[in-house]
Each structure stands twice: as structure tokens, then as C-alpha cells.
Amino acid sequence: MSVIRLLIADDQELIRESLSIVLDMDDEIEIVGLAENGAEAIELCEQHKPNTILMDINMPVMDGISATKIIKQRWPDIKIIILTTFQEVNHVIDSLTLGAEGYLLKAIHPKDLLAGIKLIHKGGTLLPQDLAKLLVQQINSPETQSLQGNKNQYDLTEREEEVLKCIAQGLSNKLIAERLFLSEGTVKNYISSIYHKLDVKDRFQAAVKAQQEGLI
User: Fold this and answer.
1) What is the pTM of this model?
2) How far, in Å, are 15, 98, 120 from residue 69 at the CA level?
């Protein structure tokens, strides 16, 4: 069993300690550090080598977004889950663009939080349904549509744009194949090409970049 070496970064001591107590009760989790700001989280990464981080956004000294950027640059294999009270779409976009694997609200039930941490540790990604809907709305907004001129710089084909739009809507490869009358193998090939052209590594980053650049 692979142990989850978890670092918790939050400026509120009550939240840090409460999460530590609850999560440390699970046999698969080892709490390796508690940080009260982003700068301290970076120091603890250096000292204790966590493989997963619960990262708050709004912290003094250094916020969670800035810390995520630095940590992902220095230790790209560390999984980062943004844990915050904010639901603004721009925070989701910022954190996922920088490589965070998930985004959860502090109001989440402890059992769901635990399940989410384990999912991320195993290589999954996580985004609450309500936030996913907000992302889709943002992607389809008039402001985003006005950025259509950026398409040419990424040289996406018409079919790749269709696949990218399906990815942004959260569709699986199977559903994309059914919608576009393609085989799943062909869909995978299109997705690989999209990742390469957009210089992203997963579906979340592709959807975020599509929103930011007005590609769909």
C-alpha cells in the first residue's frame, strides 16, 4: 500500500489542526507537515518530501496559487489539491493551469475529502460538479467567444476543435466517440494531438486553456 505523505497548508490554525486529526486517523495517510502560508509550504516540501498537498488559496506572506506555481516547478510529481471557501472560476482556472490536480471546497464532508485525496494520489483529477458547470458557462460566454482569433496560433483542425469542446464539457472518450461518430481510438489520437498543440498534459488543463484562449 502506497502511503500518502500529506502536507496541509492553511492560515487558520483550527482548520489545519482539525484536518490533521481527522485525516491522520486513516491508515493510508501520514501527515508530514502543517503550513500556515505558501512560503512555509515550500519550505516543508524541501524538508519532508510530501507527495500530496492540501492547499488553501487565501493565505498571508504567499498565497496558495503562487505556492502551487513554485512547487509544481520544483517538484512536479507532488499532487496539489486546492482547498478553499472561494468558488470563483478564475481561481479554478489559475490553479489548474499551474498543474493542480483538484479543487475542493472546505465545506466538503470529511469522508468525501478523504476519498478525493486518495483519488488524486492514484492519478485522478477532481473538480466539484458546481464548479465544472461554472467553467463550462465561462467557456461559452460572449467574452470568451470574442477571443476566437486565437485559434489559428494553435493550428487546431475543425475536428480537434470539436473534440476539445467535448473535453471542456466533461465528456468521456466513449461519449465523445458517440457524439462525433468516431472510434474511441481515433478520439484518443485527436486528444493526444490537442495536448501536444496546446502544450498541456491532461483534460483539465486543455479545458482551461480552451477557455483562456477562446479556442472553442
Assistant:
1) 0.63
2) 23, 6, 18
